[in-house]
Design a protein that fits this description.
The structure holds two protein chains of two kinds. By secondary structure, chain A is an alpha+beta fold. Chain A has 22 helices and 22 strands. Chain B has four helices and one strand. Classes of the chains: A alpha+beta, B mainly alpha.
Amino acid sequence: MKNEFSWRYRLTQIALAMAGIAIVFQIVYTQNRKEAGDILNRGWLYEGKYEYVYPPRGEIYDREGHLLAGNDPVYHVGLELLYIRRQETIEKIALALQVHLGLDYEEILDTIADARAQPPEDVPGYLLLGSYIPYENVQAFIDFRDELSGSDWEIMHLVYFLPERIRTYPEKMLAANVLGLINLDGTSVAFGIEEKYDSLLSGTAVRAWIPNNPNEAASFDEVAPATSLILTIDRDIQAASEQILDEAIGTYGAESGIIIVADPRNGEILAMAANPRIDPNQYWKPDYLAIVTDKKVPFNPAVSDVYEPGSVFKIITMAAALDKGVIVPETTYNDATGIFVIGGFAIHNWENTVWGVQDMTGCLQHSMNVCLAWVATELGEDDFYAYLQRFGIGHQTGIDLAGENTGIFKTFEGPEWETSYWDEVELGINAYGQGVSVTPVQMIMAVSAVANDGQMYKLHVLRATVQDGRQYDIPTELVGTPISKTTADTLAEMLANSLENETRFAKIPGYRLAGKTGTATIQDEPNTDLTNASFVGWGPVDDPRFIIYVWLEKPTESIWGSETAAPIFRDVAEQVILIMGIPPDQVRMSLSGQ
Amino acid sequence: MNKISSLAQKYHQASWRTQYQWIGLVLLGVVLIAMVAGIYISVSNRAILYGREILVLNREISYNERKNDNYEREIAELSSWENMHSRAKDLGYEQVSPTDIVYVVVPGYSGPARFSLATTSEELPESIIRPEYKETLLDWFYRRMEESASTNGGLP
């Protein structure tokens, strides 16, 4: 019995052993053949993927926590084309996408037909049908899909959504010139806060391994959140300023305009209105090109545009002379002819008026060019230009907005290329703000020193940063004390008196304000009556809470700053007083006594 | 020698004894392997379930973050200056002038507080993660020693 079957057992053993060896051989062969590498590589594709993970871009808020720039979820929608065979299925999907996502039915059918007409190896697995679909539409489609069952449910699951975030500015055009803009896919930022603080707002991208294997899920790389920003801008003051400016541009027929509202005690910008401006949500619309490219208006003229400021500059000339002690408020100047000759050139008052004997307050009140030219000569070019430097003229203010211009001014001392065009007459005309170009932010920062006891704070728009649930308040920065407190107080008093007596359009009942008008001719257009009209003023004089700078470019209804920029100052100041809750002077003094 | 020969003889005559021993050993090995495999499968099964849960939760977090962004944008648009201004106008509110306002002194009130989006860096919240989850065994030992020393009045 044993001998009879033993050969069969033996044969079975050998057969099984051979089969085992064959299997082992096949395994070894399969793992080492040429195609094994390709298969392994293909396997990697399904294990997960490396992706650059960006944290959502930091948000931007105004000083009261109103969202000025945030992120909005949008989706790219596509189709798993490889799993679709029947035309009826395609039509069903196209109809659902038209109803819920607003895509064009015929366009979808054409796109799918084009893709399917390609050679089989070129037919894409995932076919993109639409981009930047709003969250609400996608949610409506998903709700619709969830109500389906059976094959319809399966069909609609062939539609894929890839999420993305785009920048959104819920206040639309409000403070657009301050915020700047960013393109749809987030690859390019331009202007304003978006550009200046791009590295903080965009955060740090991480190249992360995104595993499909649940065993590796715990090894997700953490992405640090980006930094959000709180600005010094007050939304209500900004909106009021923009509204007033927009109306004024129409009323006075000006080409463009700027209003800056700041706190002279710390350099915080409360509002920076510009006209024209665009809606950064729709930067691609023709407005952008029409403004920036065609009209040559900088995106934010408050920091990027330079112009001859005119008589508002007299504040700086007078401050320098008072501080140096070459004049006092009671010093008189006898304007017998309305002409002052310097360097062989005759300087005239506006409209060639003659004012007779005037003290220094009168010189400011009547905005006498000849008087200020005389004051500058009394001061001397060395001291005059030294004071301009101390006030920051010819230097960037360092404001935290992209694209700041330096301005143009020829110093008396300096390298050959700077001094070669300087002439003695420059001293005379610079004294009343001609022959020198400044940016609006330079002017308001310089004058803020007069409003704030001689101390000049760096203008800034960033109030605090927020990251990881922690808030860091940005400290204010004193950039200089160009004049003494005594000089500042004296000049403020002179300007308040001057405003009370002369600039009736700038006054607000119950509030003592100080300020100065400016009307500057435009050297680039010498044969026209066009001017730059401006006004700078602050209040209350004894406890300044705000300083306002207004600049209208080429107003046509009236060329004078006193008739155009001054009323704008008053309207803005009224709104600022209301929004900041500043009581009238008498009330304030009686309340402070309680 | 005879005794050994006798034992060999007995085993030769009852070969099932040896087979039983082998079968027993193999079965023991199989049981051990099955136990280890069972534990391994159980642990890896739990790990995969939790891993899967993490993946799902991560997706949910992303989804909810996007949803929050959308709500935030909607709220911001609804409460934008333009909307609030036109709603106030529709409700019949009118702009006042500075002289229309009556100011009164409220004892102890010093104006609205400065807006803060988060705690300032000086006011960091205490971590909700207990130290046991973040320290080594040695750290834990030292910490307990220190705690015990401080409750007992400190070291001499």
